[in-house]
Amino acid sequence: MKKIVYILIGLFVSLSVMAQSGSPASRFGYGEINDNIPGEYRAMGGVMTGMRSNHAINPSQPASYTACDSLSFMMDVAVGIGWTRYTDSYGTKNKATGSLEYVTLQFPIWKRWIAFSAGITPYTQVDYDFTQSGTTADGLYDYSVNYHGKGGLSQVYAGLSFNVLDWFAVGANFYYLFGKVENYTTLQFAATGVTNSEILRYMDMRACRTKVGAQLFHTFAKKHDITLGATFDPKLKLGGDYLVTETYSLDTAVTSTGSEMPMAWSVGASYVWDNRLTLAADYTRQEWADAYYFGQKGFLNNRQKISFGGQYQHNMYSPKYADRMIWRVGASVMNSYTKGSPWQDFSVSMGFGFPLRTVATVLNTTFEYGRKMSLSGMEEHNFKVTIDIAVNEQWFHKRKL
Q: What is the distance between the alpha carbons of residues 196 and 186, in angstroms, rounded to a whole number?
């Protein structure tokens, strides 16, 4: 009962805390997108589609849930702390950020054939406030433009995975997506008598969506495990309110429009040698250019991401603690889905897994460095540390007296 209470408290806290990115890039579209990658795989460059393990909960690939031990209950909670430096032609700014990353759980329903997972994860984060100054083309008026926004989207999910065959698994996640986003743009002139203006884009979103996944897996010569995976997200029309409020002096105009989530898909593969060395690679694509955003199609770009990474654990059963430690490294390359000021994002990561002695629980740490560059000349250097506790306990083992 105490464990169930702890789970409910964790879910409540995660609902109450909205992760904030602090990045100027979050003012475009729905904000900065979170790929919902568990801490273990984040240290491997963000690989996810082809990953299948009984030590990690992987909500980005619903087919992976049946990899869990048939007697175990798993829970994963992660927090992130970051420091970011922004640079453009106007100067440099530093900012510290922190957030609760996710809360997930997983357990088997019927032996190794059916498994269940649930949790709450952020989908997008919006948090920015900066000002740019200039002079009109005729040189008569000085002005300043302030951009500020807040909010984000979160999602609660529940998923099922089925082992159709000994070498083939399928799964599906069912999400409830919700949240509010406010983006303000305020134009002010230094001279009196010149009309100032403000534009507000307001989104209050609610929607149910699905994600399906499949994995092929096989062991060769007892030491070589290969997994091939794929996922698919259908295109989705979002419910809720989408308002654009334009204010010029004393005049205000309000228009209402609709938005969509894009079709998305991913493919990935992983190779494991002797339960020691893991190598993996992923490709993800989101068709944002074909989705409506505030009633417009073609307003956004298609988003693509390539990830690759590796992991090494010398011997998980060794009496030497150094042999049981897990070492991870990876990298990823991604383009943003915003069209007005597109970003190119490159990141490298490394991490360590520290197994606890008394239970099959691992404390994972991930260190990431990311660099974003936009065509407008802004650069963003981000250092982030993610800490997650992956609990793995035998709840379903019948004890003998």
A: 8
Eight-class DSSP state of 191: S
Q: Rounded to a whole number, what is the distance in angstroms from the first to the last CA of the chain? A: 21
The whole-model pTM stands at: 0.86
247: pLDDT strictly greater than 90? no
**Is the CB of residue 117 less than 8 Å from the CB of residue 136?**
no
**205 against 193, higher pLDDT:** 205
pLDDT, tens digit (0-9, with 9 covering 90-100), for 221-244: 889 999 999 999 999 888 888 888
Instruction: Decide if 224 contacts 240 (C-beta within 8 A).
Output: no
* Nearest in space to 301 (alpha carbons), one of 347, 344, 255: 344
CA distance 122 to 133: 33
User: Cα dist. 208→155, 173, 205, 367 in Å?
Assistant: 9, 11, 10, 33
For 80, other C-beta atoms within 10 Å of its C-beta total 20
Q: d(Cα 110, Cα 198) in Å, to the nearest integer?
A: 57
Enter the DSSP assignment of 262: P
Which tokens in the block code for residue 341?
């000021």
DSSP code of 338? B
Question: What is the SS3 assignment for 42?
Answer: helix
Residue 189 class from Cβ within 10 Å (0-12 exposed, 13-18 middle, 19+ buried)?
A: middle
With beta carbons less than 8 A apart as the criterion, state whether 86 and 95 touch: yes
Decide: 153 and 178 in contact? Cβ < 8 Å: yes
Q: Decide if 311 contacts 44 (C-beta within 8 A).
A: yes
Q: How far apart are CA 281 and CA 310, in angstroms?
A: 9
- Angle (nearest 5°) at CA 279 between 264 and 382: 65
Q: State which fold the 2-360+371-394 domain adopts.
A: Porin (2.40.160)
